[in-house]
Structures are given as C-alpha cells and as structure tokens.
Amino acid sequence: MAKILIVEDDKSINDLIAMNLSIIGYECEKAFDGNAAAEMIKNSRYDLILLDIMLPGISGIDLLKQNTCENTKVILITAKGGLNDKLEAFNLGAFDYIVKPFEMLELIARVKVALKNFDVNENIIIKDVEIRLREHKVLKSGQEVDLTILEYNLLETLVINRNIALSREKLLEVVWGYDFEGDTRTVDVHIMKLRKKLGFDDVIKTVYKMGYRLEVSQ
C-alpha cells in the first residue's frame, strides 16, 4: 500500500484529500505546516508527498530547495498558477503541479499516475454491495449485477467521491464526456436505475437543486 503525506495548512482541504485517497486504499498522513512536514519526512518514508507551496514555517518551495523531499515523488498543490512558479517547481524536481481550485477526480487521477506501480485496495463494500474497481464488476449479495457501461461509470464516480455532493452538470461532464449534448434528466434516469438495481435508495442521496451524493459512514 502506498503511503502519502498531505502537506496543506487548510484543514478542510487536507481532510478532504485524505478522505478521498483513503477511500481507494492509500495510507495517508497529514501535516499542516512546513516545519512539521520536514520532521515527518525526516522520520518516515513516503511514496508520494502532496505539497502546498504557501505554508506556515518552511514553504513548499524551500522544502524542495533543501532536498527535504529527495527520492520521493512530489505533487505541488497551490494557488500559484504562474508559468514561472511551475518552471521553478519542476526545476527543483517536482513530479507534477496542480493549481487550486482543483477537481478531486483530477487529483486522484494524477496521484494514480504518480503511483502507477503500487496496488491499492480497489474492492469497496457498501451494505451488501461489493464494487470491484479493477475488474469493473459489481456484486450484490455475492451475485453479479448487470450494469451498463454508463451505469457503472456513474457508480464509480459516485463511489470515488462518496460523501461529496456532485452536480448533475459535473456528472454529465465526467461520465458522459464534455461533448454530450443531452440534458441533466439523463443523470436522474441513470441514478434511478442504480438505486433500483443496488438497493441504494438510502445511499445515493438527492442534493436539492444540485445533484447527488453517495452517502456512507466513515
């Protein structure tokens, strides 16, 4: 299991990243300032560091300059989106660079690229339903559920972002693609089918005037 250090002084963002990465099987630790991060990196081994630039204490850039993160892949996550900022980060050895605000799906995808040689726990169980992400297979009470490609992709998106409200427009963008010319009622129809097939009436919640959230206890 890959071990990730999240260095972000905004607790809500740090917690959100950790929750989503933990869901898909990564081991996450958190630091909220540069000094704490430097100490944790000194005393532990991490496979990936998600690093904010503007931190209390030692900045993310200074951590890179001091070779604090040497031999560990680093993805910088920052509000600083200028070309010079990016070039400096890459010249100092950053593996990737994400500008805030970011989409959680994008972050997860970039983390998976950085850690492509690691296996994660991709079997997720909710009630009597097992979602096998690697196999693109869903079982209910041990029996395989017949889902269309779109139904499965919609379920996977909700699972990866569970306990997070997703708008109908965002679901259309992610599941159907940018060029989909339908309307948001398409999402409602597929949500209804998922609820029926999986018995998820109380799991896939409707978020008033927005979209949906797959809700489970942590």
Automatic annotation (TrEMBL):
Listed Pfam families: Response_reg, Trans_reg_C
Boundaries of every Response regulatory domain copy: 3-115
Keyword DNA-binding: yes
UniProt keyword list: DNA-binding, Phosphoprotein, Transcription, Transcription regulation, Two-component regulatory system
Domain of life of the native organism: Bacteria
UniProt xrefs under InterPro entries: CheY-like_superfamily (IPR011006), OmpR/PhoB-type_DNA-bd (IPR001867), Sig_transdc_resp-reg_receiver (IPR001789), WalR-like (IPR039420), WH-like_DNA-bd_sf (IPR036388)
Domain OmpR/PhoB-type: 121-216
Listed GO CC annotations: cytosol; protein-DNA complex
DNA-binding region, residue range(s): 121-216
Gene3D superfamilies: 3.40.50.2300, 6.10.250.690, Winged helix-like DNA-binding domain superfamily/Winged helix DNA-binding domain
4-aspartylphosphate found at: 52
GO biological process: regulation of DNA-templated transcription
GO molecular function, one term: phosphorelay response regulator activity
Job of this protein: May play the central regulatory role in sporulation. It may be an element of the effector pathway responsible for the activation of sporulation genes in response to nutritional stress. Spo0A may act in concert with spo0H (a sigma factor) to control the expression of some genes that are critical to the sporulation process.
Alphabetical list of PANTHER family matching this protein: DNA-BINDING DUAL MASTER TRANSCRIPTIONAL REGULATOR RPAA, REGULATOR OF RPOS
Name of the protein described by the UniProt record: Stage 0 sporulation protein A homolog
